[in-house]
Amino acid sequence: MSNPYRLPAEWEPQCAVQLTFPHADSDWAPYLEAVIPCFVEIITAISRYESVLVICDDIDRVAAYLGGLPKDRLVLVDLPSNDTWARDHGGITVLQPGGNPLIWDFVFNGWGLKFPAYLDNLLTSGLQEQGILGDTAVQAGGIVLEGGGIETDGQGTLMTTTACMLSPNRNPHLDHAATEAVLRDRFGCDRILWLEHGHLDGDDTDSHIDTLARFCDPDTIAYVQCDDPEDVHYTDFQAMEQELQAFRKADGTPYRLIPLPWPEACYAEDGHRLPATYANFLIINEAVLAPIYQVPQDEAALQQLAFCFPEHEIIGINCRALIEQHGSLHCVTMQYPAAVGIGR
User: Fold this and answer.
1) Averaged in consecutive runs of 10 residues, what is the pLDDT profile of the chain (344 residues)?
2) Taken in order 262, 263, 269, 274, is the CA torsion positive or negative?
3) pLDDT at site 344
4) Which structural domain, as residue segments, surrounds residue 171?
5) In this structure, what CATH number is given to the domain that contains residue 304?
6) Is 331 a known active-site residue?
7) From the candidates 38, 189, 319, 331, which is the catalytic residue?
8) Which pLDDT value is given to residue 3?
């Protein structure tokens, strides 16, 4: 019997993108003044193309920041949250036969019990209870899994990392083979590509794939390339590049690999390195939102993404504030396929 699920690629038609707005009771408290304009910029850009679902601690407060945006493109929902990483606490939508959507509500445990997540773990069920997801079924995913940990080409291939997916603080009862079996079952994939290398200093996620390598179409992978032999990341990222070169498509041919620039190192005030990465872009309807960091490599990164997505508008978003909490643009967003119908 064939698997009834298909995990759509990010470039397929969407109805909405979800964000969780930062507030003073989250880890953003010291950075609110800097990070709120970044969220507003992301929401504004998305609203040009599709609806935006924004989870708010206080709808009136958030609405005041978004007052100039078209109301028919905004869905504001009042729900309590621990933090703002919608990619990882958001539901993951698969399509069933006939195109009917199903949202998997996986367990989110703060990236392997690193941070509190008890409120974030209830957000998808909260959206369902408020009727925001319409008639779309929501089902418990049954394991700990974050959206930033998986990439798909929409055609049955999944890409992930061993460091994240096999983390002992996520699903210690599952070995490599059992983890693969669950991924195949939940997402209808018949091929799983595993990266064993690639880690950014400052990253809390145990090497989420969306910080390292991304499908741009079924034949193309954009990836972070470290070309500085003096950088502490160099050896590991050279090994990751070799792994990507060894990957093969279902027909046995290699992928078209597009290197993304290595950004100049960004540091927090206390001196620790922040996980700046150009791989953390978001594909939406007719556009790609690309993180930039006010460093010299930004323009080259935008040019590479324009090469990867010739049919899309490339929109640079200043995400320097986001990496202060060790994530970036893709990390704070989660798309819903068009079939879910949010905003209609």
Assistant:
1) 87 98 95 97 98 97 95 97 97 95 97 93 98 96 98 98 96 97 97 97 96 98 97 98 98 98 97 97 98 98 98 98 97 98 81
2) negative
3) 67
4) 14-340
5) 3.75.10.10
6) yes
7) 331
8) 81
Q: pLDDT at position 165, please? A: 97
Rg, the chain, Cα only: 19
CA separation for the pair 131, 146 (Å, rounded): 23
Reported pTM: 0.97
Distance CA 236, CA 238 (A): 5
Handedness of CA 331, 185, 174, 235 (dihedral sign): negative
Q: Does residue 290 contact residue 314 with C-beta atoms inside 8 Å?
A: yes
Burial label for 232, CB within 10 Å (0-12, 13-18, 19+), is exposed
Task: Give the count of beta carbons closer than 10 Å to the beta carbon of residue 128.
Answer: 17
On whether residue 9 sits in a domain, the answer given is no
Residue 64's Cβ-count burial label (10 Å; 0-12, 13-18, 19+) is: exposed
Number of domains in the chain: 1
Token pair of 34 as six digits: 């800097």
Dig out the tokens for 322 from the structure: 């986001």
Name which of 204, 235, 289, 223 is nearest 262 in CA terms: 223
Distance CA 181, CA 44 (A): 39
How far apart CA 261 and CA 225 sit, in angstroms, is 6
